[in-house]
Amino acid sequence: MKVLVVDDEAMICEWLQFCISQNPSCQLTGVAHNGQEALELFHRDEPDLILTDIKMPVMDGLEFLHALKALGSRAKVVVLTAFSDFSLVRQALRDGASEYLLKTEMQNDLLQELLNRIAGELQRKNHQEEPDVANVAQIQSVISHILRQTRELREDDLERLRQCGIRWRNNGLFALAVWKQDMEENGLLFPEESPARHVAGFDYTDRVYMIVGNFPKTLSIAEKARQLTEYARHVQVINHCMVGISAITDEMSQIPFMVWQASCSLGEGFYTGKKRVYEPQYPLKELFRRNELWKNTFTKFRVHLHQVQGGQRYELIKTFFEVLPSQKILTVDPLCKLCLDALDLLEFEAKGNGIVLDHAEELHLRLQQCITLDTAKEVMLDAAKQCCLPIDELQPKSKNICLAVEYINAHYAEQLSLEQVAAQVYLNPDYFSRVFKIETGQTFINYLTDVRLQHSVQLLENTALRVQTIAQQVGYYNASYFSTTFKKKYGVSPYEYRRSGS
After folding, report:
1. Which residues are recorded as modified (4-aspartylphosphate) (predicted)?
2. CA-based angle 36:42:47, to the nearest 5?
């Protein structure tokens, strides 16, 4: 049985590799650190079993499952998770995962039992069938998956596209992007007369619809560029929408890069709000460089959002949106997803403070569909104002709880327990637990975890200490558990966070 491991935590991957190597019925085909890498390995090795994390950079586990489903994969998928909230796990099971394992409960004997059981099931099934791409929806999914990749197309990709009815000429290739919110119910209208040949259209992201096509060989390079701008302008006028276009290439292998560039061009419109044609502002190499910087910006914002409270959180969100226009983060979907994650955090913590967010469903829907920075900013600031208590309301007021907080801040690196801290301030543990929650807005263990993780962030940012050493210095003697706790809180592993600052 061929097994693929997908997880962005190095220690988890190493442990899984060791366990799989002990099972004679299993062959490890590869290790990926995000869904996109996993898809490349999936195409190459066609594994029978995939062990995958859910929250990962670049492409998360749920997106990976969607891509596998689009490809008609018959591979068994087991989700690895560290979350006590199983909403993501339930979604993964609905999207095609076979089952899940909690990272905190994984043991070698449990994993071996799982591997042996699945190997037995696979022996009784035929996995040689080709994916069915006969229906239109399936064809669209396959096209979308192949052209969303951020790598050059291979011959097998091109053959797959030909099977889906895609017939490009290797000349004058381009991509054109529009917001799906701007499209009419019956789709886009196109100019009746144009040398541009519209080859395919597909859903590129939740917000963006993509057109790909090419021009005749008879046109010069300059004429193709002029004709593309003219073609896009006609599409914009006829449909009264924003349009982003790519550069033009004569190499079919480069089409995914043209598609991504067109979406980034459309991202310019996110900041202006004007319905016009947006041409590429940067060459591809510069776009890739900026994209890495934007990922780092996202990571820093996500972590800092968890580290502040009350009015400080509102000011952080306000500042974030004030600097966005100057940074021009053109990959809009990840930006809006970050906003949705931040909105979920605000709503979750507001409920803990007895606050009910007004029109919560409407705010979520507006963020899910927003195609302008003004809309995203308005929603986020509205939610932040509603959800965040003033910082002074979250401060402990009684002498005993103040002393407890001081003790935790001084001894967080030790193996503290609620009973130990309660004894230090001469309170009954049960009474201490209730009063601590009332005055700080957090349970004892959540408060202690936040203190430890905040100190770990400072060490990650300001020292070159190994992650294992940092874990010990903030009170975690199991580096794997520290990494899991850090990722659960901030959405990225300590390794990923440190890389974002490099």
Report:
1. 53
2. 140
